[in-house]
Structures are given as structure tokens and as C-alpha cells.
Specification:
Elements: H1 7-19, E1 22-33, H2 35-43, E2 57-64, E3 67-71, E4 75-80, E5 85-90, E6 95-100, H3 101-125, E7 133-150, E8 153-168, E9 174-186, H4 193-213, H5 217-220, H6 225-236, E10 242-253, H7 279-294, E11 327-341, E12 356-357
Parallel strand pairs: 6-12
Antiparallel strand pairs: 1-2, 1-11, 2-3, 3-4, 4-5, 5-6, 7-8, 8-9, 9-10, 10-11
């Protein structure tokens, strides 16, 4: 979400990079709530990996010139802009893979071709034409005026809300997917310009890959998508500073309203260990399932393939005294930055000795 604007800013960042090429910081990410967290905790009784759900993951991010490394205890990723490679290291298995930007392009092109072939096959086997889906984006940035110290920095709160209302014009079915990001932004972090500059260069490189592989007409089939993307860019330009703390929520609503921000409506605490879902969890999942069915799943491809719902029998109505929730928080995540330093360990950009390289599996 960080955007560097203008040639002047680019020149200033480049000049700074010539003086200070090293920067590192820590990033702590944790799933802190949502109905999906409760379900994943239940799975923890049967899966060793699932037991870790909800635990904080501390990663180190290091930038040195045209290389960036993301390192955590289980795995690491090294992006090399000069070599145009991404190296993924599995620490637990003591192995690694290397993919080039060109290989990524080929994978994207293959996936796009496969999707197009499936769509053409579906159109030939389905007598009726796919329905036209109208999409309405609602994106707003609100500066609350609230301040607090985060990682030793003075920050200001901005709340980003994004709703995607989708309507099948044939059936009239509607549904809303919503994201709310509660951000605490620091106006300036000495050295963080190295990270911004790296992402700018990476976006240029990857833009060339994606632009040549993705057909821009894919979004055009959804009415209102282009206008929504333009409005999103305008709203996000209101964000000033670096988000050192973010609490992001993803979910669904039935009334087209945004999900409440974490600072305004904290979620109830989660149980410490695996537990059966509460009545509230079941109600939330029911609401999410209902909204998801209107959206044709979590994507838009289901529109035009479902007939209008038949009236429900009387005995399926909600019990007296109960109300169906109008929104469902599927997942809430907390991401905090800290430990800012100009010191970078060169070993961060090397594959550990004794690790074996394995080839990526080709997609059929």
C-alpha cells in the first residue's frame, strides 16, 4: 500500500540510497480473532501445524541494495532484483527452491490459459449465457485524529474501509465482501526509505511480468470495477506515513456497511486452547455462508450459475428471540513493526550450508 509519487521523490530516495544501503527491522504478525480462528484452533487437536495458529510469527526484514530477505524460524524468502530470482528456504526441511521472474511469468500465463479453456468449455456446455455481474467498490480513508506511541514512535490513526458489493443482474442476488484496516502511521522512520525504494523497483520488474501475462479485460467483465480501482487509488493517497501497526479485518456483511475497526469495536477474547464453537461462532458462520452463497463462493464466478432461491419452509425460520447477524469477521490479523536498524547481516541473503536445492513442481 506504500506508493512513491513523482520523479522528485524518486531522485531523493535514490540519493539517500547511495549513502545508506542497509536497513533491517522486525515484523510481528498474529491472527488475533475471527470465526476462522476458532475453527482452526479446533483443527489443532488433530494437526501439529494447526496448533500454531494464533501464535505470533516474528520475521526479520533486511534490505541491502537490490536484495531483500524475509526471515522467520520456519522459512525465509530472498528477492534478488539483479538476478531476477526469488529463493524460498524451508528451514525445517533443510531445502530451498529458486524461481526466476521469467518462470513466474510462464506459470501465470499457463494458469490464465487453463482458466480461459475452462471458461470456454463451461460456455459450450451451458445453454444459457453467463450473467453480467455489476460490482460496486466503496473505499474510504478516515483520519481519526487519535495518536499513540508504537515501537517508540509517535503515530496517528487512519482507518481504511473497503467494501465490494456484487450483484447478479439476472437473479438479483447481492453480497458484500469487506476489509477494514486500522492503521497507526509514523510520519518518518529514518532508513525506511530503503524499503520503499526496493518495493518500487520490485513493482516495476513485476509489473512487466504481470502486464504481459494478465489480460486487462478480465476486470472489464465486471461492471464498475475500473471506476472502483480509480477511486481506491484516490482514497489511498490520503494515507500519510508508514503503518507501523495494522489491525486488518476481513469478512462479509449483509447491509453493505463496513466492518467496524478494531479500535472502535474490539473482538471478544479467544479461548486459550481448542474448543467447540460457541453459538455466536455458529451464527457468524451461518451468516458468512449465506453471504458467500450470494457471492457464488468467495469469488465472483458463481454469479449467473444459480437460480433464484426458492422460499424457505416455515420450520426453517430462526427461533423466536434470535436475530441473524448483519456482519461476520472471518479473520483479524495484527502486524507490528519494530527493531529498526541500519545494521544488516550479510548471511541473511545466503542459503545456509548443507541445504539441498529442489526443483519446483510443474503445473499440469
Amino acid at each position: 500500500m506504500l506508493i512513491i509519487k513523482g520523479a522528485v521523490v524518486g531522485l531523493l530516495v535514490a540519493a539517500s540510497a547511495s549513502l545508506h544501503a542497509d536497513f533491517t527491522y522486525t515484523e510481528t504478525t498474529q491472527i488475533t480473532g475471527g470465526s476462522m480462528l476458532g475453527i482452526m484452533k479446533m483443527a489443532g487437536a488433530f494437526s501439529k501445524e494447526a496448533r500454531k495458529v494464533g501464535e505470533p510469527i516474528v520475521s526479520t526484514v533486511a534490505v541491502k541494495g537490490n536484495r531483500m530477505a524475509h526471515i522467520n524460524p520456519d522459512r525465509s524468502e530472498i528477492i534478488d532484483l539483479d538476478a531476477e530470482t526469488i529463493t524460498n528456504i524451508d528451514t525445517l526441511k533443510r531445502q530451498y527452491t529458486v524461481v526466476t521472474f521469467e518462470q513466474m511469468k510462464q506459470q501465470i500465463e499457463a494458469a490464465a490459459a487453463k482458466m480461459k479453456a475452462q471458461q470456454q468449455k463451461a460456455e459450450t456446455t451451458t445453454p444459457e449465457k453467463p450473467a453480467t455481474t455489476a460490482v460496486k467498490f466503496e473505499v474510504h480513508v478516515r483520519n481519526t485524529g487519535q495518536t499513540k506511541d508504537v515501537s517508540g514512535l509517535s503515530t496517528n490513526e487512519s482507518i481504511l474501509t473497503m467494501n465490494m458489493d456484487a450483484t447478479d443482474k439476472n437473479s438479483g442476488q447481492t453480497g458484500t465482501m469487506a476489509i477494514t484496516n486500522d492503521m497507526w502511521l509514523a510520519p518518518e522512520i529514518p532508513g525506511y526509505e530503503e524499503v520503499k525504494e526496493f518495493y518500487r523497483k520490485f513493482a516495476v520488474k513485476m509489473g512487466m511480468v504481470f502486464n504481459s501475462a494478465i489480460n486487462p479485460a478480465m476486470l472489464a467483465q465486471y461492471q464498475g470495477a475500473s471506476k472502483g480501482m480509480a477511486e481506491m487509488t484516490e482514497e489511498m493517497s490520503k494515507l500519510k506515513g508508514t503503518p507501523v501497526l495494522q489491525v486488518m479485518r476481513m469478512g462479509m456483511t449483509t447491509d453493505s456497511k463496513p466492518l467496524p475497526a478494531a479500535s472502535e469495536a474490539p473482538l471478544p477474547p479467544q479461548p486459550a486452547g481448542p474448543a467447540m464453537p460457541s453459538a455466536g461462532d455458529v451464527a457468524q458462520q451461518s451468516a458468512a455462508s449465506a453471504i458467500s452463497s450470494k457471492l457464488g463462493g468467495f469469488g465472483l464466478g458463481g454469479f449467473g450459475k444459480k437460480k433464484k432461491a426458492e422460499p424457505e419452509p416455515a420450520d426453517s425460520a430462526p427461533a423466536t428471540g434470535t436475530t441473524q447477524p448483519t456482519s461476520s469477521v472471518l479473520m483479524e490479523t495484527n502486524t507490528q513493526m519494530g527493531g529498526f536498524s541500519r545494521t544488516v547481516n550479510d548471511a541473511s541473503f545466503a542459503v545456509p550450508a548443507g541445504f539441498n536445492q529442489v526443483q519446483l513442481k510443474s503445473e499440469n
